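Entry 14. Two folds queued back to back today. First construct below, sequence then structure tokens.
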Amino acid sequence: MDIVKIDVTFESSIEDVWDFMTDLDNQLWRNSLEKIEKIDQHRFIEYDKSGYQTEFVILNKIDKSIYEFNMMNKNMEGHWIGKLKSLDNGKTYLEMTEAVEMKKKMPSFIVKKYLEKQQKQYIKDLKKALNE
């Protein structure tokens, strides 16, 4: 299993960061996504711009604190957790950890590089959505 951990500090409040991260009705700020299909309260499918699907199962959603899910598609199965913390200066700290098991064997450095790229794009998109 390949694991990537990235952290970032946002200028925005924890409420604003949380709202963008968890709102499945408004994910158009995500550069790589075409749409999200909600299946039920705990499951959804993301469709990227090419139509590629990844299914998510929400495991833990603690208000303004933890957002955690499993994800799977035809190439991988994985786990993602985001931990948020409000800082004294009104900013928000986010730590993201993603662990992925590829269904076809791939060199670990390639998988990690891809995961880092995905996480950095997510941060970039979120900062843009928050006007940072």
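Second construct, same run, same settings:
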Amino acid sequence: MTKIIFLDVDGTLIDYETKMPASAARAVEEARANGHLVYLCTGCSKAEILQRHLCETDGMIGGNGAYVESQGKVILHQGLSREETKHIVDWCNARHLGFYLECNSGMYCNAYMQEQGPDTMVRYSLGKGADPSKAKRSADDFVNEFILLQGEDLYREDVNKISFILSSYQDHLASRTEFPELIANTWGGKGEEALFGDLGPKGITKKHAIDVLLKYLNRDKEDTIAFGDAKIDISMFELCGTSVAMGNAGEECKAAADYITTDVNDNGIENAFRHLKLIA
């Protein structure tokens, strides 16, 4: 029986310098040639994924579940309302926090993000084990992808979720109080240190999005395999028939997985695909 494979992106399919190992691309190509379906399942929105120039897949789940696409067809798209976006934008600006709006059309930021983003992304990359000599370039490349908007131009209607830099963990706690109707997460560096907060629609998770996609495909969860490296991936582990944590994953992610493969840069995807007999 063919399988449906869900791949987280950062730290799973690609490393923390945003590079995809050749072995991972090769494994995905061979698995699809063997009849398996492969979907990205990521916190990134479509614009960010398109900038990564990744391997061919059968579709994607983006925005941690806000967007589902299969074979070019949009199955689900549930983002923030203009009013919710305005509230978050004004709240972040009042606290002088850099943020970016994650949309399928692009990634849009405020001026604080341009100031604060490079140093924060260097901390993120170094905390995940990136080569120090490459971390600054990787961070600059990431921030340079953003489109600067100001004033009411930031009050958009096409936002999947919003990520913002934490000046301290208190900013995350304050966001949970300020936006009880939304889902508040954190993400970051070593040990999943909280460097960023993010806010998205309530009820939107990777688990929910996979369930929507399986109903569309008329497939059972027993046919699914999920790959991830962080706490945010545990929700898809709960639904999928088999779950795989990367060797570089956080401890909570590893504890929730059925199988632990090697690190992303130690042929983790290819080794797991072989172990699970997806490829020869």
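Quick look at the second one. The two ends are 15 Å apart (CA to CA). The first strand starts at residue 4 and ends at 7.
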